[in-house]
Amino acid sequence: MAKRVGVDKLLFCVTLILVVIGLAMVFSASVVMAKERFGSPYYFVVRQAIWAAVGLAAMTLLMQIDYRKYNRPNVVFPAVAITVICLLAAFLMRDSHNTHRWIRFGLLSFQPSELAKPAMVLFLAWFLQSRMQTIDDWRGTVLPAALPSLVFIVLILKEPDLGTALVCAGVTALMLYLAGMEVKYLGYALLASLPVLYLMLFRVKWRRDRLLAFINPEADPLGKGFHIIQSLIAVGTGGIFGLNYMEGRQKLFYLPEPHTDYIFANISEELGLIGALVVVGLFIILGYRGIRAAVLSKDPFARFLAFGITATILIQAFFNISVVLALVPTKGITLPFISYGGTSLFIMLALIGVLLNITREIE
Fold it and tell me: Which ranges of 63-111 would DSSP assign to H, the alpha helix?
């Protein structure tokens, strides 16, 4: 039995700092837009603060609950089933901008795709903990392990939400690799997915337009290339030290979604390269502490769970920052703990709570 210690204080503090930075930057990025659209400059930040409070409460609670309580079929399978039901229920809701990503009940709304991340990690951790010796058995191990992820990915792609689907696929691949799967088999899976990616990227007009805009945004600077150009202007304008907090100009109806998908551009503009590197550094520290917890855990279930949680956060952060810096085509995906979005913030903080509980069990 591992020696029981306190939670990882560095991981706890880094998470709190990211949440505080997020609240500050959501306010800065949305204040003008909120005043114009809703009559109050505090419209977005108040909602984000409420979700942050609820999420921090959930994190505090979950870091007290023994993670082994989740290592049961009567926890794992209901989690997967509820997630599938929620993903299907989203299609019964009124669409928003031709997408079915939300479930709304009056003032309450949430994205079921966010539930897919913890449910997927939980199932894989539970399933793979005792299957590492048979990880190359396609029928007995690989297909059953990947099936819930494949169902989630198909439903999320149907919403459509390619960004979240790619996060789920990446986390699944990494957890299978951690379980001992040979890289060549992951390569086969990638080859099998190429036709789907082709259909998603080249046979769907708006995605194809985004891809072409990514390759040459200057070809349509006021249309399809507008997001990329405005994002890069914000990043470049910030320089090393930034324009100072609240002084950014791209958020003044130039940069689309400055408080959600492109909040890192606003950070770069107002806090400069130094501020951007601080945020990236915080994610690196979070990733290091999460991987450390996975490596030091003697319980295979804890190892997979810690690794899956950490991978989910880092992959999502990587995609968001890469979109802002025009390293990958535009995708609607939030920056964990920082972007406006209650469901994402709550789920991420809850995952950190589970991860913190795991850190109690390591030396």
Answer: 73-89
**pLDDT tens digits for 212-266?**
888 888 888 888 888 899 999 999 999 999 999 999 999 988 888 899 999 999 9
**Domain spans of the chain, in order of start:** 9-359
Encoded amino acid at 178, one letter: L
Residues 6+ apart with CB under 8 A from 257: 332
| Of 82, 79, 22, the residue nearest 53 (C-alpha) | 22
Residues 6+ apart with CB under 8 A from 43: 30, 34, 37
State the DSSP H helix or E strand holding residue 277, giving kind and residue range, or none if neither: helix 263-296
Three-state SS at 219: helix
Through-space distance between the first and last CA atoms of the chain, rounded to whole angstroms: 11
In order of 86, 163, 225, 322, the CA distances from 334 in angstroms are: 20, 10, 20, 12
Residue 147 tokens read as: 């099936």
CA–CA gap between residue 208 and residue 214 (Å, rounded): 10
Task: Assess contact for 180 and 132: CB atoms under 8 A.
Answer: yes
How crowded is residue 27: how many other Cβ atoms within 10 Å of its Cβ?
21
Which pTM does this prediction carry? 0.94
User: Rounded to whole angstroms, how far apart are CA atoms 242 and 239?
Assistant: 6
Q: Using an 8 Å Cβ cutoff, are 324 and 238 in contact?
A: no
Cβ–Cβ under 8 Å, residues 273 and 239: yes
